[in-house]
């Protein structure tokens, strides 16, 4: 099963932090898109728009950052979007009924984390492949959410709560601060903790990881729970930005989040990738949509253009990675 | 060995000649101006340390890898071997060190992959013929199995036999075998040797790579020694002694008797296995290991040694019985065993021992993360230091600790698997075929290392199919048969004959 | 011969996937509680409704066996379905529409194969991108509108009977027959096992994994083209969202049917059973009229339970 | 008495269809009939609704109240119902084919036109306006946007800056609005094709500390609340509740041999700060219109 020709194409997984070249080329791709947009649209380079892009990217990033860990273990979580929807609806209800944003936030994170834990349980204890387990979970969550919401929306939250998603601090949107914080936490966790290292090892070869004395099941449970909790966090941001919750909000979130992880260079086969790459992936996706809105390009073209950008980004990345060996 | 081996003088036209082959991988000069000639009807042994470039040379010979420089001559004519198809046309077949089998096809389909007999409709396969042909080939190598069995259900040894059948079926004029006996038991190895004798008589040229000295002298008509990618010499077995050969391979003297510092009195009890049975087919296993001891676990392939090792380590569920380690009972997953101080060096390094796409360094520290970084904060530089230390200690041939471990030679990969448990500081080392595919120099280094570990108060349980190794290094040994302990041999009783007698099926 | 005796019962045991058990249970359950479930008309409904998905899930099985994935299938089906509608509307010829759909499908499949095999982009990413492209093209060629007024010859394909059997069911059976023959009885099928199981072995055998991989993805695209004809016939129109998300249904059916995502182990009949199990569940729930949210959740539960049973089997 | 009515709606997520379903339930209770709901598990899925029709035809309910997920693509489904001789009433989106007992719906074009006119009147006939469209190609969206555009044509002083889709989704509308605000320094009015998008646009405006008049369509509870608090200028009443009520009423009446109205197109009402009170009643407490009211509401 070894494929030496394939292997020799890949760079050695470094012992130090992940190869800087890889991150560099990704940044370059993002910057190229920025440059193109700056030429095409006057308003692109305004501070307002840049903050705007960062804020929009943050929502995708929150979901995608937890997902990155899952993908690092060679798993996938297709239920993140549905998880965001259910968590938002539950958190929204709690805020409405208790009037306490704190309780609502706790509910959202707990709900998200619980769903993640259940995913982890199915993957570890029941040994269902993650792709399928979370696909099943996606339907179960949708069913529960539809039943719970019964076609209603929950809307109108306290102004203080709304600040989380739409407020500013020192001229920067609050989600941007959160984005930076979680980018740092995610990167440190993955690169600078033994748990992070173990996660890479599990993704690279789960059998060998188990026989190396890594508690594989516990780490996988952790990873799925973290991914779920990050979906819970995203649901809070979502709730406070949109000031409302409804059953179908998650539908359009999952594929962009997965795309962000993959454009960011994390391999679906596990063991390779970074949280920072995922951030760039989210940024690239957001830039494309932002550009199309700024240039008033018909929405019919959006999926096509996004698809082409994904190909180009991944292809460029592969091309530029080869010589770094 | 009855036919007189042809020499360069007596048959001036070699079947195939390689001249000036060089090959560089990033950071490694794998082959440097190597020339190599193969004559019909001879067994040509290729020797060298791990990483000397043997497999690389063979991959070039069969067109799987391209050389940077060099020429090929077939029966005196210059030819190009740019692909495996070219090589096949010249009648070159290979038994690879790494299996080239497809798990979910049956044996017959694997043997004839790419050469399927055509069925009546275009594109279809003549099922009856492929089975009949495969059966004939399997019979010819003395492997009695139904060719419609799915390969994935076979054990390592059986897969190796299929690999051999696949090469034989090509009616090759040149047959390359890269460590074919590494996964075989003595019985199967005997079958293979008999087969080699028959092929030789038919004029087939055989290139044979092995780390086992006994095989070199029993089979070889000629020997080529490689060191650091260069050809050192080309000679006949009659002209050298094993010691001389070893010196050529490693460039220094090696003591091949693996000296042990046997302890006068056994240490305290470390591992006690009582009436152990598992779902994988072993039953009523009773084993004791004391500190300072190396205890052998022998038996035929399939006798259940691996299963005992896995059950002790928690990799397979225990159905019955008790395992006491260091005074306290132990049960659960491998992470618990590892935390308590048990290490398992598994049988299959590629699938169970290593994360092939990660670096040598990452693989070396993976079991020791808890010990090296008790705070949970990982320090890449600390890890690097530990890895560098192990690379030096074990003499792992790698450009840096950052090299992808999958790119190392087979033997060096094995050293990485052993190395990771050294860093973890285990008390009991369970070795499952630790020297499979390891060169003589490394073998003695590893045994010296094990000796030192046990002298410092650790203990080892060692599984090996090479009984001579068990006899050399073990304080005593258990012999297994059909999933049970068939007997125990003390130091004085520990001979190859006794192991074989106890391990054989009832006759 | 003792080896065979040890080995084959294990093999056949592993071949009873959880989905077979689930399917039998579902049929028994709905047969008991849902009036009309066991009627011939209803059972033929279930089969007819399952054909389009079967036509995607079978090639998806092959693709998954190569350790690949095709996320673009639903979107490509949408696009080819629009092709059928637009071309047959313009030319008044069902065959031309069908031809165009197959061509477009095959083209997309080939591009997928090219991206995966030659450019070397991981299948998930490559086909996620072509999903976007096919979706975008569907919106662009239709401007987001349904395409109606297509000749009746198209529609008749879906509603016609041959010897009392609905034509879609015949097409589904034929598709299964072709795929079965292809995978288990041809050299190409043998190489599909090798593509996922051990690609290096193919190379050593002097075969080109690249061309084989492209062919596998091209088959996927082509089947999406053929299914596009059925989809258009079913709706008697083309619509830019018709096939959205079908690829995930197909993947779930493949997985539930016992094909593993690793090492090239695939089982075609299991895939068909997976498709039918989901169809039976949906149909049965429609007949017993539980709340729709229950229906949504039970699709997920079915997938999880089938996979769980599968896990139990393979562990024992 | 005791007829079973199968009610088909497009999805379980959009509040509008919940109002339709509540209306149908409400009316059924009054008429002593039983309602079964059929909703695709994947929102707005054409193949799924087709399958549901096929399954329901086996089950043979007394009658069907039908909202096609796509007005053109569902025609074969309607024909299947017709072939099975089950009486069916079409509500909300007018099917492009098939035989119906009656049609009950709102006039999307007039809703777009009237709400558009109201916004432009409030702006004094001038200013910079953006349109946020719903799902491309959906019947409601095409007509509503046409209405918006015609209202704009009547007011040459107003300028249309952009017309971008938000797919009836709150988040998408919010992001589209955020992006549009970057390239347009001054936006005075927002015409959103539904309330969720209107509210999304308001959130975007709030976030950027900018002000604009926003209108939506549907008259959802959320929109009414926003109108009350002055955030939303107005919403066009799509009146799903009445559609559900009247659709069920017509189909039951036809079963019972009573006269039916073959076409009811509800007159557009623009809900504003002045007239929102009657719309501010929880769904469950509303009562269905009577047969006599029906003709006043918009029989043709
Ligand atoms: N694809 C590759 N990329 C980089 N280096 C490689 C590659 N293949 C082999 N090497 C290196 O080339 C050298 C020779 O390797 P080779 O496999 O030929 O050794 P070998 O003599 O067969 O050793 P062993 O006895 O351990 O099997 C080693 O240092 C190995 O790490
Ligand atoms: N000839 C055989 N027939 C059937 N099963 C076999 C045969 N040989 C081995 N096996 C099974 O295959 C699995 C792995 O085989 P393996 O060759 O590793 O045996 P083992 O017991 O670990 O002994 P060893 O340590 O010599 O390898 C075991 O479960 C074994 O029972
Ligand atoms: Mg080698
Ligand atoms: Mg073994």
Automatic annotation (TrEMBL), chain A:
Protein keywords: Cell inner membrane, Cell membrane, Membrane, Transmembrane, Transmembrane helix, Transport
Keyword Hydrolase in annotation: no
Segment forming the signal sequence: none
Compartments (UniProt record): Cell membrane
Any Pfam family: BPD_transp_2
CDD domains: TM_PBP1_transp_AraH_like
Residues annotated as transmembrane: 23-47, 59-82, 102-121, 128-148, 168-190, 220-239, 259-289, 301-318
Claim: Transmembrane is one of the keywords in the record: yes
Species assigned in the record: Bradyrhizobium ontarionense
InterPro entries: ABC_transp_permease
Main location: membrane
Membrane topology designation: Multi-pass membrane protein
Entry protein name: ABC transporter permease
From TrEMBL, chain B:
SMART domains for this protein: AAA
Keyword Cell membrane belongs to the record: yes
Keyword terms of this UniProt record: ATP-binding, Cell membrane, Membrane, Nucleotide-binding, Repeat, Sugar transport, Translocase, Transport
A GO molecular function held by the record: ATP binding
Source taxon at top rank: Bacteria
Domain ABC transporter: 16-253, 251-507
One Pfam family, short name: ABC_tran
Recorded family membership: Belongs to the ABC transporter superfamily.
Function description: Involved in beta-(1-->2)glucan export. Transmembrane domains (TMD) form a pore in the inner membrane and the ATP-binding domain (NBD) is responsible for energy generation.
UniProt name for this protein: Sugar ABC transporter ATP-binding protein
UniProtKB/TrEMBL annotation, chain C:
Residue ranges of the TM segments: 16-34, 46-65, 71-90, 95-115, 162-183, 212-231, 267-288, 294-312
Subcellular location field: Cell membrane
Domain of life, per lineage: Bacteria
InterPro entries membership: ABC_transp_permease (IPR001851)
Membrane topology: Multi-pass membrane protein
Pfam families tied to this protein: BPD_transp_2 (PF02653)
UniProt keywords, alphabetically: Cell inner membrane, Cell membrane, Membrane, Transmembrane, Transmembrane helix, Transport
PANTHER family for the chain: ABC TRANSPORTER PERMEASE PROTEIN YPHD-RELATED, ABC TRANSPORTER PERMEASE PROTEIN YPHD-RELATED-RELATED
Protein name (record): ABC transporter permease
Lineage: Bacteria, Pseudomonadati, Pseudomonadota, Alphaproteobacteria, Hyphomicrobiales
């Amino acid at each position: 099963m070894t494929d030496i020709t394939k292997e020799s194409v890949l760079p050695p997984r470094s012992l130090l932090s992940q190869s800087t070249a890889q991150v560099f080329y990704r940044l370059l791709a993002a910057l190229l898109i920025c440059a193109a947009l700056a030429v095409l649209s006057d308003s692109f380079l305004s501070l307002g728009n840049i903050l705007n892009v960062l804020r929009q990217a943050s929502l995708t990033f929150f979901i995608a950052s937890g997902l990155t860990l899952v993908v690092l273990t060679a798993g996938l979580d297709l239920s993140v979007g549905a998880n965001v929807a259910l968590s938002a609806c539950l958190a929204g209800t709690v805020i409405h009924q208790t009037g306490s944003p704190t309780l609502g936030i706790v509910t959202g994170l707990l709900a998200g984390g619980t769903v993640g834990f259940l995913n982890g349980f199915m993957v570890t204890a029941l040994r269902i492949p993650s792709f399928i387990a979370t696909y099943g979970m996606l339907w179960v969550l949708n069913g529960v959410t539809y039943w719970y919401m019964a076609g209603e929306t929950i809307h109108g939250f306290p102004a203080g709560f709304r600040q989380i998603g739409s407020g500013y601090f020192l001229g920067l949107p609050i989600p941007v601060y959160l984005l930076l914080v979680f980018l740092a936490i995610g990167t440190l966790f993955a690169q600078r903790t033994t748990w992070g290292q173990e996660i890479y090892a599990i993704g690279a070869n789960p059998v060998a990881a188990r026989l190396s004395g890594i508690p594989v099941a516990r780490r996988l449970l952790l990873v799925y729970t973290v991914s779920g909790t990050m979906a819970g966090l995203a649901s809070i941001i979502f709730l406070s930005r949109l000031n409302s919750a409804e059953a179908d909000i998650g539908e359009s979130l999952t594929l962009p989040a997965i795309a962000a992880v993959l454009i960011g260079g994390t391999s679906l086969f596990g063991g390779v990738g970074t949280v920072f790459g995922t951030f760039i992936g989210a940024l690239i996706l957001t830039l494309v949509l932002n550009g199309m809105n700024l240039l008033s390009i018909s929405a019919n073209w959006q999926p096509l253009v996004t698809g082409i950008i994904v190909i180009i980004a991944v292809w460029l990345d592969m091309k530029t990675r080869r010589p770094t060996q | 060995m009855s036919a007189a081996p042809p020499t360069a003088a007596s048959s001036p036209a070699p079947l195939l000649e390689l001249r000036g082959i060089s090959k560089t991988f990033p950071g490694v000069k794998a082959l440097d101006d190597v020339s190599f000639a193969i004559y019909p009807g001879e067994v040509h042994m290729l020797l060298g340390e791990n990483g000397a470039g043997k497999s690389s040379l063979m991959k070039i010979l069969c067109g799987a890898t391209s050389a940077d420089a060099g020429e090929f001559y077939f029966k005196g004519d210059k030819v190009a071997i740019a692909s495996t198809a070219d090589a096949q046309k010249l009648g070159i077949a290979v038994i690879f060190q790494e299996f080239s089998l497809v798990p979910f096809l049956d044996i017959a389909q694997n043997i004839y992959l790419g050469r399927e007999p055509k069925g009546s409709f275009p594109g279809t396969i003549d099922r009856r013929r492929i089975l009949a042909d495969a059966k004939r080939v399997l019979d010819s190598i003395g492997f009695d199995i139904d060719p419609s069995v799915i390969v994935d259900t076979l054990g390592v040894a059986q897969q190796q036999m299929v690999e051999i059948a696949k090469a034989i079926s090509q009616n090759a004029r040149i047959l390359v075998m890269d460590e074919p006996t590494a996964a075989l038991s003595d019985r199967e190895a005997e079958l293979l040797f008999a087969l080699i004798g028959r092929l030789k008589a038919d004029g087939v040229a055989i290139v044979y790579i092995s780390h086992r000295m006994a095989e070199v002298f029993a089979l070889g008509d000629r020997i080529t020694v490689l060191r650091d990618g260069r050809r050192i010499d080309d000679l006949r077995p009659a002209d050298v002694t094993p010691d001389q050969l070893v010196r050529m391979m490693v460039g220094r003297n090696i003591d091949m008797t693996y000296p042990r510092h046997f302890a006068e009195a056994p240490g305290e009890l470390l591992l006690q296995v009582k009436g152990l049975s598992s779902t994988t087919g072993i039953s009523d296993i009773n084993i004791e290991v004391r500190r300072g001891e190396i205890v052998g676990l022998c038996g035929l392939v399939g006798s259940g040694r691996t299963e005992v090792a896995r059950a002790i380590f928690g990799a397979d569920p225990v159905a019955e019985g008790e395992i006491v380690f260091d005074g306290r009972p132990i049960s659960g997953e491998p992470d618990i065993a590892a935390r308590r101080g048990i290490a398992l060096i598994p049988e299959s390094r590629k699938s169970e021992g290593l994360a092939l796409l990660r670096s040598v360094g990452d693989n070396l520290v993976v079991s020791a993360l808890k010990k090296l970084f008790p705070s949970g904060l990982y320090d890449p530089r600390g890890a690097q230091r530990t890895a560098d230390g192990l690379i030096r200690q074990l003499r792992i041939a790698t450009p840096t600790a950052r090299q992808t471990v999958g790119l190392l030679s087979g033997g060096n990969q094995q050293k990485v698997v052993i190395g990771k448990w050294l860093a973890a500081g285990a008390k009991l080392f369970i070795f499952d075929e630790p020297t499979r595919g390891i060169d003589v120099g490394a073998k003695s280094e590893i045994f010296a290392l094990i000796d030192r570990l046990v002298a410092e108060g650790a203990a080892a349980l060692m599984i090996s199919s090479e009984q001579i190794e068990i006899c050399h290094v073990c304080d005593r040994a258990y012999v297994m048969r059909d999933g049970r302990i068939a007997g125990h041999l003390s130091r004085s009783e520990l001979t190859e004959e006794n192991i074989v007698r106890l391990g054989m099926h009832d006759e | 011969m003792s080896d065979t005796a040890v080995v084959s019962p294990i093999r056949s045991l592993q071949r009873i996937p959880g989905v077979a058990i689930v399917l039998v249970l579902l049929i028994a359950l709905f047969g008991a509680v849902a009036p009309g479930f066991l009627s011939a008309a209803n059972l033929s409904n279930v089969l007819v409704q399952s054909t389009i998905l079967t036509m995607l899930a079978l090639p998806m099985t092959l693709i998954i066996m190569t350790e690949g994935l095709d996320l673009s299938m639903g979107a490509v089906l949408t696009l080819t379905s629009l092709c059928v509608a637009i071309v047959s509307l313009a030319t008044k010829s069902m065959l031309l529409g069908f031809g165009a759909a197959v061509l477009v499908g095959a083209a997309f499949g080939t591009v997928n194969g090219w991206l995966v095999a030659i450019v070397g982009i991981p299948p998930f990413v490559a086909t996620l991108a072509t999903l976007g492209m096919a979706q975008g093209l569907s919106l662009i060629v239709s401007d987001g509108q349904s395409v109606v007024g297509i000749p009746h010859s198209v529609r008749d394909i879906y509603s016609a009977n041959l010897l009392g059997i609905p034509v879609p069911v015949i097409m589904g059976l034929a598709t299964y027959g072709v795929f079965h023959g292809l995978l288990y009885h041809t050299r190409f099928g043998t190489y599909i096992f090798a593509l996922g199981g051990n690609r290096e072995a193919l190379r050593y055998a002097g075969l080109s994994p690249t061309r084989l991989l492209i062919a596998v993805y091209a088959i996927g695209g082509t089947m999406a083209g053929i299914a596009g004809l059925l989809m258009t016939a079913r709706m008697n129109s083309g619509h830019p969202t018709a096939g959205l998300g079908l690829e995930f249904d197909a993947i779930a059916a493949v997985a539930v049917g016992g094909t593993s995502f690793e090492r090239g182990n695939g089982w075609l009949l299991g895939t068909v059973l997976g498709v039918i199990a989901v169809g039976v569940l949906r149909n049965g729930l429609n007949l017993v009229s539980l709340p729709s949210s229950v229906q949504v959740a039970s699709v997920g539960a079915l997938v999880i339970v089938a996979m769980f049973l599968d896990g139990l089997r393979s562990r024992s | 008495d005791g007829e079973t009515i199968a009610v088909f709606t497009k999805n379980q997520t959009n509040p509008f269809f919940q109002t339709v379903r509540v209306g149908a339930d409400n009316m059924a209770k009054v008429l002593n009939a039983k309602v079964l709901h059929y909703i695709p598990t994947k929102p707005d899925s054409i193949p799924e609704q087709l399958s549901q029709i096929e399954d329901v035809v086996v089950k043979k309910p007394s009658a069907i109240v039908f909202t096609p997920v796509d007005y053109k693509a569902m025609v074969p489904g309607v024909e299947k119902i017709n072939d099975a001789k089950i009486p069916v009433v079409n509500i909300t989106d007018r099917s492009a084919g098939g035989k119906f007992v009656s049609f009950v719906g709102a006039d999307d074009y007039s809703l777009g036109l009237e709400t558009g006119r109201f916004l432009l009147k409030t702006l004094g006939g001038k200013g910079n306006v953006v349109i946020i469209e719903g799902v491309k190609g959906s019947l409601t969206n095409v007509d509503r946007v046409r209405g918006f555009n015609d209202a704009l044509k009547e007011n040459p002083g107003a300028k249309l800056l952009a017309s971008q889709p938000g797919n009836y989704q709150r988040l998408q509308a919010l992001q589209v609005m955020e992006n549009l605000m970057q390239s347009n320094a001054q936006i005075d009015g927002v015409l959103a094709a539904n309330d969720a998008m209107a509210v999304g646009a308001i959130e975007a405006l709030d976030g950027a500390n900018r002000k604009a008049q926003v209108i939506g369509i549907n008259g959802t509870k959320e929109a009414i609340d926003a109108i009350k608090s002055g955030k939303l200028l107005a919403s066009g009443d799509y009146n799903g509740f009445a559609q559900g009520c009247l659709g069920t009423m017509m189909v039951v009446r036809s079963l019972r041999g009573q006269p039916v109205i073959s076409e009811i197109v509800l007159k557009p009402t623009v809900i504003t700060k002045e007239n929102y009170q009657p719309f501010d009643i929880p769904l469950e407490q509303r009562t269905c219109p009577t047969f006599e009211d029906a003709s006043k509401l918009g029989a043709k």
